[in-house]
Design a protein that fits this description.
Elements lengths: L1 E2 L2 H19 L3 H5 L2 E9 L4 E4 L1 H11 L7 E15 L2 E13 L5 E3 L3 E10 L2 E11 L11
Parallel strand pairs: 2-8
Antiparallel strand pairs: 1-4, 2-3, 4-5, 5-6, 5-7, 7-8
Protein name: Nuclear transport factor 2 family protein
Pfam families: SnoaL_4
Length: 145
Protein backbone atom coordinates (compact mmCIF):
# COMPACT_ATOMS: atom_id res chain seq x y z
CA UNK A 1 0.00 0.00 0.00
CA UNK A 2 1.16 3.50 -0.69
CA UNK A 3 0.30 6.97 0.48
CA UNK A 4 -1.90 9.20 -1.62
CA UNK A 5 -1.38 12.60 -3.20
CA UNK A 6 -2.65 15.79 -1.60
CA UNK A 7 -5.35 15.94 -4.28
CA UNK A 8 -6.64 12.47 -3.43
CA UNK A 9 -6.52 13.26 0.30
CA UNK A 10 -8.67 16.36 -0.26
CA UNK A 11 -11.04 14.38 -2.51
CA UNK A 12 -11.49 11.75 0.19
CA UNK A 13 -12.13 14.32 2.91
CA UNK A 14 -14.66 16.08 0.66
CA UNK A 15 -16.36 12.73 -0.01
CA UNK A 16 -16.71 12.10 3.73
CA UNK A 17 -17.95 15.65 4.40
CA UNK A 18 -20.69 15.15 1.82
CA UNK A 19 -21.51 11.63 3.03
CA UNK A 20 -21.75 12.66 6.69
CA UNK A 21 -23.93 15.67 5.91
CA UNK A 22 -26.41 13.33 4.26
CA UNK A 23 -26.33 11.05 7.30
CA UNK A 24 -26.62 13.94 9.76
CA UNK A 25 -29.61 15.27 7.80
CA UNK A 26 -31.17 11.80 8.17
CA UNK A 27 -31.29 11.56 4.35
CA UNK A 28 -30.96 7.79 4.44
CA UNK A 29 -31.55 7.22 0.73
CA UNK A 30 -28.99 9.89 -0.21
CA UNK A 31 -26.47 8.50 2.28
CA UNK A 32 -26.87 4.93 1.04
CA UNK A 33 -26.30 6.11 -2.55
CA UNK A 34 -22.71 6.90 -1.48
CA UNK A 35 -22.16 3.13 -1.13
CA UNK A 36 -21.75 0.67 -3.97
CA UNK A 37 -24.88 -1.32 -4.80
CA UNK A 38 -23.35 -4.32 -2.99
CA UNK A 39 -21.83 -2.21 -0.22
CA UNK A 40 -21.35 -3.60 3.27
CA UNK A 41 -21.56 -2.05 6.72
CA UNK A 42 -20.28 -4.18 9.56
CA UNK A 43 -20.82 -2.98 13.12
CA UNK A 44 -18.23 -5.45 14.43
CA UNK A 45 -18.81 -4.50 18.08
CA UNK A 46 -22.39 -5.77 17.94
CA UNK A 47 -22.07 -8.47 15.26
CA UNK A 48 -24.34 -6.66 12.82
CA UNK A 49 -23.33 -6.96 9.18
CA UNK A 50 -25.59 -5.47 6.50
CA UNK A 51 -25.06 -6.09 2.79
CA UNK A 52 -26.56 -4.09 -0.08
CA UNK A 53 -28.27 -0.73 -0.31
CA UNK A 54 -31.80 -2.04 0.34
CA UNK A 55 -30.73 -3.72 3.58
CA UNK A 56 -28.83 -0.58 4.63
CA UNK A 57 -31.95 1.55 4.09
CA UNK A 58 -34.10 -0.86 6.13
CA UNK A 59 -31.59 -0.96 8.98
CA UNK A 60 -31.11 2.80 9.06
CA UNK A 61 -34.84 3.47 8.97
CA UNK A 62 -35.29 1.16 11.96
CA UNK A 63 -32.74 3.27 13.89
CA UNK A 64 -34.30 6.64 12.97
CA UNK A 65 -36.55 7.02 16.04
CA UNK A 66 -33.54 7.51 18.34
CA UNK A 67 -32.47 10.50 16.22
CA UNK A 68 -35.83 12.27 15.96
CA UNK A 69 -35.95 15.69 17.61
CA UNK A 70 -32.17 16.05 17.89
CA UNK A 71 -29.42 17.43 15.68
CA UNK A 72 -27.00 14.61 14.87
CA UNK A 73 -23.36 15.30 13.99
CA UNK A 74 -20.63 12.86 13.00
CA UNK A 75 -17.19 14.27 13.87
CA UNK A 76 -14.51 12.32 11.99
CA UNK A 77 -10.74 12.84 12.12
CA UNK A 78 -7.32 11.16 12.12
CA UNK A 79 -7.67 9.94 8.54
CA UNK A 80 -5.11 7.48 7.22
CA UNK A 81 -5.63 7.04 3.47
CA UNK A 82 -3.71 4.45 1.46
CA UNK A 83 -3.81 3.25 -2.14
CA UNK A 84 -4.82 -0.41 -2.11
CA UNK A 85 -4.90 -1.09 -5.84
CA UNK A 86 -6.27 0.44 -8.97
CA UNK A 87 -9.30 2.58 -8.07
CA UNK A 88 -9.29 1.33 -4.46
CA UNK A 89 -8.43 3.16 -1.25
CA UNK A 90 -8.22 1.87 2.31
CA UNK A 91 -9.21 4.57 4.79
CA UNK A 92 -9.17 4.42 8.57
CA UNK A 93 -10.34 7.17 10.89
CA UNK A 94 -11.87 7.92 14.29
CA UNK A 95 -15.45 9.05 14.77
CA UNK A 96 -17.46 10.77 17.48
CA UNK A 97 -21.24 11.19 17.19
CA UNK A 98 -23.08 13.95 19.07
CA UNK A 99 -26.80 14.55 19.54
CA UNK A 100 -28.01 18.03 20.44
CA UNK A 101 -31.58 18.48 21.69
CA UNK A 102 -33.85 21.52 21.30
CA UNK A 103 -32.46 23.09 24.51
CA UNK A 104 -28.88 22.75 23.27
CA UNK A 105 -27.96 19.84 25.55
CA UNK A 106 -25.32 17.67 23.89
CA UNK A 107 -25.00 13.93 24.47
CA UNK A 108 -22.21 11.77 23.12
CA UNK A 109 -22.25 8.34 21.54
CA UNK A 110 -19.25 6.09 22.21
CA UNK A 111 -16.20 6.79 20.06
CA UNK A 112 -15.42 4.54 17.12
CA UNK A 113 -12.54 3.41 14.92
CA UNK A 114 -13.67 2.99 11.30
CA UNK A 115 -12.13 0.95 8.47
CA UNK A 116 -13.45 1.76 4.99
CA UNK A 117 -12.71 0.53 1.51
CA UNK A 118 -13.48 3.21 -1.07
CA UNK A 119 -13.66 2.45 -4.78
CA UNK A 120 -13.70 4.77 -7.75
CA UNK A 121 -16.49 4.03 -10.24
CA UNK A 122 -16.87 6.25 -13.30
CA UNK A 123 -14.69 8.88 -11.65
CA UNK A 124 -16.65 9.00 -8.36
CA UNK A 125 -15.80 7.59 -4.96
CA UNK A 126 -18.14 5.12 -3.27
CA UNK A 127 -17.89 3.16 -0.04
CA UNK A 128 -17.49 -0.53 -0.84
CA UNK A 129 -17.28 -1.61 2.79
CA UNK A 130 -17.29 -0.02 6.23
CA UNK A 131 -16.32 -1.80 9.44
CA UNK A 132 -17.15 0.03 12.66
CA UNK A 133 -15.30 -0.82 15.88
CA UNK A 134 -16.52 0.73 19.13
CA UNK A 135 -13.69 1.97 21.34
CA UNK A 136 -13.32 0.21 24.65
CA UNK A 137 -13.02 -3.26 23.20
CA UNK A 138 -10.46 -5.51 24.83
CA UNK A 139 -8.35 -5.75 21.67
CA UNK A 140 -7.00 -2.47 20.24
CA UNK A 141 -7.89 -1.93 16.58
CA UNK A 142 -5.74 1.10 15.73
CA UNK A 143 -2.87 0.48 13.37
CA UNK A 144 -0.13 2.61 11.93
CA UNK A 145 1.79 2.28 8.71
Amino acid sequence: MSRVSVEVHIEVQTFYAQQMRLLDALDIEGYVQTFTEDGITDHAHRGEKVEGRAAMIAGANAALPRYQGVAVRHWNDHYLIEEAGENTLNVTYCSLVTRTDAEGKVTFEPTFFIEDVLVRVDGRLYTKSRTVHRDGQAKPVARAS
